[in-house]
Amino acid sequence: MNKVIATKVFESLASGIRLDVWRLLVKSGLEGMVAGQLASELDIAPNTLSFHLKAMLHAGLLSVEQEGRFLRYRANIPLMLDLIGYLTEECCAGHPEACGVGGVEPLCAPACCDKE
Predict the structure, then answer these.
(1) In angstroms, how far is CA 14 from the centroid of its own chain?
(2) Which of 7, 45, 53, 112 qualifies as a FRET site for 95, CA 20 to 30 Å off?
(3) In the structure, how many helices (H) and strands (E) does the chain have?
(4) 57: how many CB neighbours lie within 10 A of its CB?
């Protein structure tokens, strides 16, 4: 992950509709959803949804697979995990013991601080 890709992902998610699409596709897991299901579930006009799906595909947030007349969309979870890793790779300045303060839960996931 680099800054250009991270910025593209954040720009793509800078919309309430796209965030809703992302969260719904994450929830659907590997099965994903066809465009009609997404439009119905989110109560969005199909042409509006198409515009948002295209932007998310361009950013790499989604994958799409043709199924007969339908397009099935899936969230690109590895990309999001890479983004989270990119955002937290320098967490706690390389001192994982500093990630938690006074017995409080760590500020970041243990994996981002395990830089031994």
Answers:
(1) 12
(2) 7
(3) 6, 3
(4) 16
- In terms of pTM, does the model score above 0.70? yes
- Rounded CA separation 69/59 (Å): 24
Cα–Cα distance for residue pair 92/112, rounded to 1 Å: 9
Provide the 10 A C-beta neighbour count for residue 24: 17
C-beta separation of 57 from 72 below 8 A: no
Task: Please state, in angstroms and rounded to a whole number, the distance separating the CA atoms of residues 72 and 31.
Answer: 9
**pLDDT tens per residue across span 18-75:** 999 999 999 999 999 999 999 999 999 999 999 999 999 999 999 999 999 999 999 9
What CA–CA distance (Å, rounded) separates 58 from 52?
A: 10
Instruction: Tell me the β-bridge partners of 66.
Output: 71
CA–CA gap between residue 50 and residue 34 (Å, rounded): 11
